[in-house]
Amino acid sequence: MGPELPPGQRYVRDFIVYAALGLPEVDIQNYRLRVTGCVERELEFSYESLIKSLPKISYRSDFHCVTKWSVKDVHWEGIPVKWFAEKAGVRGEATWVFFRCLDGYMAPVPIEDALSEQAIVALKMNGEPIKLENGYPCRVFIPHLYGWKSAKHLCEIEFADRYEDGFWEVYGYHERGNVWSEERFKGGFGRHVRRSPLLNRK
Ligand SMILES: Nc1nc2c(c(=O)[nH]1)N[C@H]1C(S)=C(S)[C@@H](COP(=O)(O)O)O[C@H]1N2
Ligand SMILES: [Mo]
Hints:
By secondary structure, the protein is mainly beta. It has helices at residues 47-52, 81-88, 111-114; strands spanning 10-12, 32-37, 43-46, 57-64, 69-80, 96-101, 106-110, 120-125, 128-129, 139-141, 154-160.
């Protein structure tokens, strides 16, 4: 299902692997996903606990990179970010989520988008555990945001009461990155492009 391609995108056959900071070595025995920041209790999950017990959702959705390539109909499976937020007891002052990665990459996402229904910590793509180059052991996926928000090798979900640039935002990429309103760059051009109103929130 799903409508047509978002504006300005075209389909390619497969993912073009981006690893701006190189592929990390993943020591899966000692790997932990941490939930930190504006929460009642910080949490830690081993890879085993992520794959075994936690509530999963799955669906089909396209993937859209801001450099204009999209991959059609990827099957995603993972744990809703919302589940982690509820489990940790996210506090009212949280307005942003910083997704931090083993390679040092970070992507900020407004809390509304991060807690939206289909926003997940993905553990499988197309029925297989995520390959190293695609973000093993897990990556964020939020269907309506550009691919640079899909932080690979995720190791920390930090709830924050302030905005901070991540790896790509420093270079002028948009704070939110909604694919349907073409939020490619901050400020910028065109009627769709504007600073996120969330930035003005206290
Ligand atoms: N840790 C990390 N996550 C990342 C990136 C990265 O360089 N490092 N690149 C981002 C960008 S720009 C895109 S388009 C997608 C690409 O996903 P892929 O490498 O699985 O194709 O990963 C995103 N997540
Ligand atoms: Mo990208």
